[in-house]
Write a structure and sequence with these properties.
The protein has 339 residues and is mainly beta. The chain is built from two helices and 21 strands. A five-stranded mixed β-sheet has the order 1-5-4-3-2, with no helix packed on it. A four-stranded antiparallel β-sheet has the order 6-7-8-9. A hairpin with a 7-residue loop joins β3 and β4.
Length: 339
């Protein structure tokens, strides 16, 4: 009876109408703090803190780092690595910093994969550093250089940058990578070391954009998600790094097998430049955030999936800016980013 009276009173206070709660605004509309410049971000949660790592953009900065307690307010943090290891400068002459990292927690240590290269070249390498904690103030903090994981040279048909670790359901571990050339590749890793299981093994192709001989084939930044009995491959198409003129966008395909084939909702193969659009620039009416891409994802402790990426802010001189969106899995099983 008390519940009935209380409900009636609330109804009267609302003028007899049902009071509908406003849905929360998209996360992207609430982000603030140190969210720019951020390029090629990945995200992870450790305890009560979220960590974002990205390509080093400041003078002498190896990798950029940001932290947050609520996914909304972001603070700049110290770069996890102070300088390039000797092996990297020898493997890739002329390299100046670190690009496009990947962060994960495996076997009691955090794995930080990162790229070293020079723009437009496939003389590249992916390195690995590990630490027991991400908290720079915690006992035992410090990144241990584990050396090179995989490299590429001009005689190879792939580019060893943009790493992403995926642990398959059977426990086997893989590293997805790639940018331009003949597309995105998959290598199997030794679960104990996080490095190549068979250093001489040929990679598996998981996505490419066929082009005429000598023509550009812009596909890069693989990231694989395990959800609902499928593996989901995110990849960036077209061009980044041109500020507000960037044409980057992100597509997704799915496969029952971690090695593919990855197909879009319409059945198009990502080995033929297909897939389904997942992130695109704002509509023409807004025109602010351009070229959304280099997407990563993570699952929070409550089971909510998020995608993190960068886009170029047309209202701020085209500066690459951190973007985060909740992933809603539709009735058809396909992901939708709540941009």
């Amino acid at each position: 009876m008390i519940r009935i009276v209380l409900a009636a009173a609330l109804s009267l206070l609302a003028g007899g109408a049902t009071v509908a709660q406003e849905p929360p605004s998209p996360l992207n509309t609430r982000l603030d703090g140190a969210i720019a410049p951020v390029h090629d971000p990945v995200i992870i949660r450790a305890g009560d803190t979220y960590y974002v790592y990205g390509t080093g953009l400041g003078p002498g900065q190896m990798l950029g780092a940001r932290t947050s307690k609520d996914l909304i307010h972001w603070t700049e943090a110290p770069s996890p690595i102070a300088a390039l290891p000797d092996w990297a400068t020898k493997a890739v002459p002329g390299t100046k910093g670190m690009w496009a990292p990947d962060i994960s927690y495996v076997n009691g240590r955090y794995r930080l994969y990162y790229s070293v290269s020079t723009f437009g070249s496939n003389r590249s390498a992916i390195g690995l550093a590990t630490s027991t904690t991400l908290d720079a103030a915690a006992p035992g903090y410090g990144w241990r250089d584990e050396g090179m994981v995989v490299g590429s040279t001009p005689d190879r048909d792939y580019n060893a940058i943009d790493p992403n670790l995926i642990v398959a359901r059977d426990g086997r571990q893989y590293l997805a990578l790639g940018s331009f050339w003949t597309g995105l590749k998959l290598f199997e890793l030794d679960p104990k070391t996080g490095k190549m299981l068979k250093p001489d093994a040929a990679p598996v192709s998981i996505a490419r954009r066929p082009a005429p001989a000598g023509g550009p084939a812009p596909v890069e930044a693989p990231f694989i998600i395990d959800h609902g009995g499928y593996y989901w491959l995110l990849a960036s198409y077209d061009y980044c790094c041109k500020g507000a003129q960037s044409t980057y966008y992100t597509v997704v395909g799915r496969s029952k097998n971690v090695a593919g084939p990855y197909l879009g909702k319409d059945g198009s193969s990502m080995l033929q430049g297909g897939g389904t659009i997942f992130l695109r620039a704002d509509l023409q009416e807004q025109q602010r955030y351009r070229g959304p891409g280099h997407a990563g994802a993570f699952r929070d402790k409550d089971g909510t999936d998020y995608v993190v990426y960068h886009a170029y802010d047309k209202q701020n001189k085209g500066v690459p800016t951190l973007r985060i969106a909740r992933i809603r899995w539709g009735a058809d099983g396909w992901p939708v980013a709540e941009q």
